[in-house]
Amino acid sequence: MIPETSYDIVVVGAGPAGSTAALYAAKKGASVLLLDKKREIGSPIQCAGFLPDASEVKALLPESDLPGALKSYPDSCVLQPIKTQRIIPPNCNAKEFAVKGAVLDRRRYDQFLAGQAAEAGAELMVKTRVTKIQGSTVETSGIFGKHTIRAKAIIGADGPNSLVAKSRGLITKPEAKETSVAIEYQVRNVDTDPDALEMYFGKDYVPGGYAWVFPEGKDRANVGIGIRSCMAEKGVSAKEYLHRFIKKHPVAGPKLKNAVIMNVIAGIIPVNGAPANTATADSLVVGDAAGHIIATNGGGIPPAMIAGKIAGETAAEFAAGKCDLEEYDRRWRAQFGQALETSVQARQIMDGIMKSDTLMNAAFRFISPEQMKVMQCGKLPGPVKLGLQALSRGKK
After folding, report:
1. With a threshold of 0.90, does the pTM exceed it?
2. Are residues 376 and 311 in the same domain?
3. Which is an annotated GO molecular function term of this record (predicted)?
4. Domain containing 369: what range?
5. What is the DSSP string of 153-206?
6. Mean pLDDT lowest among 169-173, 284-288, 298-302, 361-365
7. Number of domain units in the chain
C-alpha cells in the first residue's frame, strides 16, 4: 500500500484505543490513516484480555459514552464468559463477587476493531513504524517503504513509551512516573474455575501488585503477575516471582502444577494516571500513551476505548474547523477523569499496606465483596478510605 501524502488525521497504533479513534474519526467524514508497527494486528497479544460487560462499565462510569464495540462484538472474540471475580489475600481467605464479562481472544478482538475502522473508511498500514514526528509531518518506515505524511491532527495510541507523547511533551514528569511490570503465560493442562477471574495478593509473590489466573476455556488459562519494581526484593525479577507463584502458592500452585506454557507475554503498565495535558494544538494521546489505566486493577480496555471514541470525534471536528484539539482533554476528563484519579489515590493508599501481609489480611477482612468490586473499577468508598488510611498509619 502506498499512502497519500496528507490526511486529516494520522493515528499511531492500532490497539483498542487507536482503532476506536480511527473508526469514529472516519465515521465523522475525516480522512484517516491508521498505522501499526506489528506484522499482524493484535499479535503478539499484550494483556490478559478481560473485558467487563458494558452494563458493568456503564454502572461504574455513568457519564461515559460507550463505543459500540464495548457493547457488542462477535462471539468468535470470546475465549471464556466470566460470572465471578475472586480475591485471594495472603491468608487465602477468599472473597468473591458477581461480575459479568468475558476473557477475549485479543488477536481476534483487535482485528475486529481495526476492521471496523477500515470499513468506515480509514486506511490501514501494518508493519509500519513511525520513525520521526516533526511539526505536522509523520515519517514512517516499514514493509511498504519510507514515507513522509502530513496530517492536520496526530493521535498517539502507541503505548506507554509513546513517541507521539514524547515528541509533544505529553508525558508524566519522571519523578511522578509509576509503572508496573507485567509478565504472563498462556498455559494449558490446568485445573481452574472456568467461570471465575482469580486475583492473588501477597508481598512474597506479588509485591506492589497482584497475580491472576484468568480462564481461557477448558483446561486453559492466562496466568500472570503485575509487580512494582520499587517494592520487589532486590535482585528478584518479575519472571522469578511468577515462577514462585506458580510453584509455591498454596492455593494456585496445586491448580497449576501440571501447566504447560504455550505463550509468553510481557509489558509495562502505567499506573500513575494521566499527565497534566493529553492534547496540544495539533496532537493528542489516548490509551496507555495517556495513562488511561484503572490503577487499582491495571484494566485499560474500557477507558482506552471510551477515550478513543472521544479522540476520534474531537480530531474530526478539529480537522473540519469546528473546535480546538485541546477540547479532547476536557471531554475525556468529564467522562471518567475522576474515576481515574480516584483509582490512583486508592493505589497510593494501598502501597504502604501491601508491604505487610498482616496489614493486607486486615484490610481484606473489613472490605466487603461489594466494596471490593467498586474499588476494582476505580472508586473508593468513604468508609474503606478511612479504614485503609488508619491501617497505613499502623492503627488496627
Report:
1. yes
2. no
3. oxidoreductase activity, acting on the CH-CH group of donors, NAD or NADP as acceptor
4. 357-394
5. EEEE---TT-HHHHHHT-S--GGG--EEEEEEEEEES----TTEEEEE--TTTS
6. 169-173
7. 3
